Amino acid sequence: MGESYAQTRSDEMRRTVVSLEEKNERLSRALTTARGQLLQMQEQLQQVNRPPLSLATVVDTDPTRREVVAVVSGRRMRLAAAPSLDLSSLAHGQLVRVDDKMVAVEPDGFPREGLIASILEMVGLDRVLVGMEGGQEHLLTLAGTLRHGNLRPGDSVMIDLRSGFAFERLVRSDVEQLLTPEIPDVSYQDIGGLAPQIQQVRDALELPFRHPELYRSYGLRPPKGILLYGPPGSGKTLIAKAVAHSLSSDGEEKRTYFLSIKGPELLNKFVGETERQIRAIFSRARALAGTDVPVVIFFDEMEALFRTRGSGISSDVETMIVPQLLAEMDGVESLDNVVIIGASNRADMIDPAVLRPGRLDVRIRVDRPDRVGAVDIFSKYLTPDVPIASTEVASAGSVKAALGPMIDRAIERLWTRDESTALFDATLASGTVKRIYLSDIVSGAMIAGIVERAKKHAIKDALEGHGAGLATAHVLAGVDEEMTESLELAQTSSPEDWARTIGLREEVTAVTMLRTEQ
Q1: 518, part of any domain
Q2: Residue 57's closest CA among 91, 29, 95, 25?
Q3: Nearest by Cα to 424 from 368, 502, 358, 477
């Protein structure tokens, strides 16, 4: 019995020990948790009671003396650097944290807000001259993020005048879309019916670019720019692109830059904005030309931007815009590899100072095509690569032979001057009445539209199972549709707008319809 009692006590004590061990383990875990919470609260308390830190802009570092040259609240100071601060990681213009003892302790980021200025000139590798509204100019230092060599005059940058830094390049969509240099792929061979005008352009522009030594030996100055004027759709823009393409060399890495500027895009309701964009355009041209690459600046719809000063139209904004262009054009005189091409449907509305000798001194009229020119234009769009109807090919003997009669039929239809192609009577300011036929308003753009309509008719017939391939009937249908659209244009436009649209030189007071769409 004594052994049984001893065994029972032993079991009770063992259970007690196990229970005490479990309690001890729970107590240990609770103490560990409490200690962690206490440390966390102490850390939070330290963070809350931490003194505020100031921000300074880094100007330079001195690793040997463990100092940071920084701008603190507009004052340039030399600050001691904390041992934990890696001076080699600091960039020019970067923010650094400064404690209450004026010790630089931690690096920070870069400013994200500031004033906007336009670059006027690059000064060395790390400085830039910027211009602001009101004509103010400032010489600033480039922050570390901008010291990569991709900045150009005319770019917009974010600046801070107190620290004297330019921090960030900004893409101004209103200007950058105008300054994007384009390398056209249009050649002179792609333009039809304008051989005399193309030869004039090549004589005026390409000879000075390709043979500058001959021009210098004869004491000749290359023309600063040319004006292409004439009715709309006659190919003025194509010629300008072909000039840039021709001046490019396919065998070299550098090619001609083509800056296409549409006049209405530059107009801005804010005072001085249009002039700023003009300055930016010429600054970009100078920068591109400085790399020994020809630059063509093409102003389309020139009369919308540089109209005659004092005309009283559009609140006379041209009184400020035209002088800005003239100043920039006179500045281009001493530059190489820059040529200006202007295009206009109304050359009479452009300020005469823009057109005087020494500026846009070469003026070339790009007129409507004649019958021979129209055949040439048709041949640029109706090529042997176009699917031709099998009946047309069988009748002519080959695809190439089938195109000739097709083009001849279209030309005959366009140049027929009878009641079927008479569009309307235009009453001129002199009192005379001029009958307008379809051949009077033919343009390269109209011929391109006729061929495009004909191809669409051929596609629709092929989908409907009426035979595949382009036929003469499709081309004639395209001619009739263009004639109908010309009638609708005259019905919905005022006489002055209509005359300006088709390029009539005389002033039109009234338009009388001769026939309506059947």
Answers
A1: no
A2: 95
A3: 502
Distances (CA, A) of 296 to 181, 191, 386, 393: 10, 19, 34, 44
Residues 238 and 354 in one domain: yes
Same domain, 269 and 335: yes
For the segment 92-115, the average pLDDT, to the nearest whole number, is: 90
Alpha helices in 49-96 (DSSP H): none
Q: State pLDDT tens for residues 347-381.
A: 778 888 888 777 777 888 888 888 888 899 988 88
Q: How many CA atoms lie within 13 A of 76 on its CB side?
A: 10
Residues 276, 346, single domain; the answer is: yes
What residues form DSSP beta bridges with 142?
166
CA atoms within 13 A on the CB side of 267: 15
> How does pLDDT run across 146-191, given as a tens digit for each residue?
887 678 776 788 999 988 999 988 876 655 555 556 667 888 888 8
Q: Residue 101's domain is classified under what CATH number?
A: 2.40.50.140
Last residue of a domain, one of 365, 391, 413: 365
Contact 381, 349 (CB under 8 A): no
The pair of three-digit structure tokens given for residue 405, joined into one six-digit string: 């009669």
pLDDT digits 0-9 by tens, 202-234: 888 888 877 878 888 888 877 778 889 888 888
On whether both 455 and 383 belong to a single domain, the answer is: yes
For residue 214, which phi and psi values (nearest 5 degrees)? -65, -40
Residue numbers of the domain that contains 129: 115-170
pTM for this one? 0.66
Q: How many residues does the chain have?
A: 518
Identify residue 311 by its one-letter amino acid code.
S
